[in-house]
Amino acid sequence: MAELSTLARPYAKAAFNYALEASDLNGWSSALATAAAVSQSDKVKELLENPQLTAELRAENFLSICGDEIGANAQNFVKLLAENHRLALLPEISSLYEVLKAEQEKSLDVEVISAHALSAEQTQRLVESLGRKFDREITLQGSVDESLLGGAIIHAGDTVIDGSVRGRLAKLAEAMNS
Question: Which residues cross the membrane (predicted)?
Fold first, then answer.
């Protein structure tokens, strides 16, 4: 949703800039991830949408659910979000923050879905190759989907590389039908 991203972006940038100055990128990452997860609960969503609660009460209740997982500065951030009626944006803020953090750290999370489990050597070669291609440190997560028949699908940020047999057959069928 473009609208949620547009609303969440300034908050994510502010949190990122603060975390960068404080040299606490991982701490803020953890705090935002926790807050985002809490905000996704159905009961918490009801709490956030309750018009009878003031922004201060929403923030207090929300922070009591989060417990000690969120430090004092992140608590102030949550209070600011509550005052501006933006607590529901926490998942998007957390996601945008992680993008900024990965860009700063020159890292990239890559998901590989293959037809068969990759050997350690294949995984290492793939990490090295993708690292050169994207000029980033690669963190690889793999899973197996036997319906691919062969090959793999790689999700690297916004890039998707479909090298699966199923994908190639679909492209061939599409070309034959047009």
Answer: none
Q: Output the CA torsion sign for 5, 110, 15, 47.
A: positive
Cα 106 to chain centroid, rounded: 16
Q: CATH number for 2-102: choose from 3.30.1490.100, 1.10.357.120, 1.10.520.20, 1.10.238.10.
A: 1.10.520.20
pTM: 0.69
User: The tokens of 176 are what?
Assistant: 């034959």
Map out the domains of the chain as residue ranges: 2-102, 107-177
Strands 107-114 and 137-144: parallel
Q: Describe the crossing of helices 25-39 and 72-83 by its angle, rounded to 10 degrees.
A: 50
Domain 107-177 belongs in CATH node 3.40.30: yes
Tell me how far apart the alpha carbons of residues 95 and 98 are, in angstroms, rounded to a whole number.
Answer: 5
Q: What is the pLDDT of residues 81-130, one digit of tens each?
A: 999 989 999 999 999 999 899 888 888 889 999 989 999 999 999 999 99
The token pair at 168 is 């190639």
Distance, CA of 116 to CA of 149 (rounded, Å): 9
Spatial distance between the Cα atoms of 17 and 9, rounded to a whole number of angstroms: 12
Write out pLDDT tens, residues 127-139.
999 999 888 889 9
